[in-house]
Write a structure and sequence with these properties.
By secondary structure, this protein is α+β, with helices and mostly antiparallel strands. It folds into three domains: 8-159, no CATH class; 210-285; 292-455, Heat Shock Protein 90 (2-Layer Sandwich), CATH 3.30.565.10. It has 14 helices and nine strands. The chain has helices at 8-13, 20-44, 51-71, 80-100, 113-122, 125-144, 161-244, 250-285, 294-302, 333-349, 414-424, 449-452, 457-460, 463-485, and strands at 18-19, 77-78, 291-293, 311-318, 328-330, 353-360, 364-371, 428-433, 441-448. The strands form three sheets. It has a five-stranded mixed β-sheet with strand order 4-6-7-9-8. It has a two-stranded antiparallel ribbon with strand order 1-2. Strands 3-5 form a two-stranded antiparallel ribbon. Helix 7 packs across helix 8 (250-285) and helix 10 (333-349) runs antiparallel to helix 11. The longest helix is centred in the middle third of the chain and has 84 residues, at 161-244. It starts with 7 loop residues before the first helix and ends with a helix.
Length: 486
Amino acid sequence: MNAPEPNGETTMRTHAGLRVQTLVRLRWLAILGQLVALLVVHYSLGFVLPFWPALFLVLLSVWLNIVLLLRFPAGARLSENAATGVLAFDIVQLALLLYLTGGLANPFALLFLAPVTVSATVLSTRRTLLLGLLTLALASLLVVFHLPLPWYPDSPLHLPRLFIFGMWMALVSGIGFTGLYVHRIACEARQMEAALAATELALARQQQLYALDGLAAAAAHELSTPLATIAVVSQELRRSCLQECAPADDEERALVCEDLELIAEQAARCREILARLADHRSGRRDEMLAQVKISALLEEIVDPLRGPDLAIRLDVGAEGGGGEHEPVVRRDPGLLYGLSNIIENACDFAAEEVRITARWDEERISLTIIDDGPGFAEEIISRLGEPYVTTRGHRLHTLVDSEEEEPGSGMGLGFFIAKTLLERTRATISIANRPAPHHGAIVRIDWPRGAIEAVNKRLAAGGMVRTSIRGRAKAAQNGEKSHERT
C-alpha cells in the first residue's frame, strides 16, 4: 500500500484496455447498420444518393475490421494509442457518410455519441477530450458543408437553419453529458476494483500471519527435543570439565566452562521462547479464549498507543435501562483491524487527548471515538469511506493507512478498508466534527448486540467463564509442575 495515490490519469493507464474482440464486434454491428440503411434508402425507398461513394466508406470500415482480426489475437487488448486511432477513424468515417447524406439533417447524426461513449469507458480523460473535440469540429462543419438529404425528387425537403442549429446543440450537449457521465462511472468502478483488491491483499497478509503462527507452533513442537538434548549435554560437559581438568589449567578451564554455561543458558532461553509460542497458539485455538469482554478488547487495542504526550480515556458502561451484563465479543480479525485503524488514526491526529466511550443496552452496542485534533476537512467529510479519499499535503484529520509514516500521506484506503471490514460485522459508522468552539473529530460505530456478541448473558455474567478459566489455570499449573519434575 505504499504506492503513490492513483489519480484519474494513472488509473486509466493501468487499466487493462479495450479488447480487440469487443471492439470488432461493435464495429461489425455498426457496419451492418450502415449497410442496411444504404440499401433500404437506395433500393426500397428509391431516394437518390451517392450510393457508391457511401458504400466505399462502409467497405473501408470492413477492411479495418479485417486488419484488426489479422493483426491481433481475439483476446488481445489494444493500447491507448491504437484504440484512439480506431475510434477517430470511426468518427471521420461517420462524418463523411453524413456529408454524403444530408449532414446534421440526417437523423443518424445521433450515432456521433457512440465512439465518444466507448472512449469515455476505457480511455483516459485526455484521449476522450480529444475525440470529443474532433467530433464537435466535424459536426460543426456538417452544419455548413453537406450534400442534400436524400428525399422524394418531386418534393425536396428543406429544413430550417434553426432546426439544424438545434440538432448541433443537441449533439454538443449529448456528447458532453454522456461522455462525462460514462467516464466518471468508469473511473469510480476502476477505483472500487483497485480498493477491493487492496482490501483482499490486507486480508491475505492477515492469513499469512496466521499461517506463520501455525509454523511457529510446529517449530516449538519439533525443536523442543533437540534443545533439551543440547541443554543436557552442555551441562554434562561442564560438569566433566570441572572435575577432570588439572589445576594448572585453571584459566583455560574457566573459559571452557563459561562457554558451556552460555550454551546451556541460550538453549534454555530458546526453550522458553518456543514454550511461549506453543502456549500462544494453543490459546488461540481455544474457543473460550477467542472471546473477550469489550472493555478488555478496547484496552488491548489502546494500551500500545498510550504515551507521555497523549491521554487516552476509556469509558465503558451500560446505558440506563438495560444491558446489565457486559458484552463478550469474538476476536474477529476484521473487527480488530477496523477498530485498531480508526483508533490509531484518532491518536495520530489528536493534540492531547482521545476519548473512547463504549455503551450498550439489551439491543445495541455503540462505540464513540473523539479526539481534539483539527477535525475532518469539510470538503471531504461527506465522501469519507470511498476509496482514495485523502487530504494529501494538508494538515487535516483524514483517516489513512496506519502503516504510513506521516498522517495525510497515504492512499486514502485506510478508512475504506476499516469501514468495509466493520460493515461486514453489521456495523453502522457515522462521522462528524465536534461542534464549535471545540475542535476535533467524532467517529461513532453502532452494532446490533447479537451481531458481535460471542456468548449468552449467563456466560457474560462471569459464572461459567470464571469456572472454565479457573479449571484451565489449575490444569496448566499441574502441567508445569509435572514438567519441572521431568
